[in-house]
Amino acid sequence: MSKIHRSAKNGQFVTPKFAKTHPATTLAETKGGKPTERERSAKSGQFVAGGTAARRPTTTVKEK
What we know:
By secondary structure, the chain is of the alpha+beta class.
């Protein structure tokens, strides 16, 4: 499946070129995938605890 890219700062979709040049603040997700309603690190793509996401809002995104 193809990937789409999203900004961790504002949740907006970004181009693959932008994602490649800003890997620390973007996250890739599978196109057509189902949301988990959980917070994820934009740096590693790993799920993080809600407290971690609250302390680091510019590098985490909640999947909706």
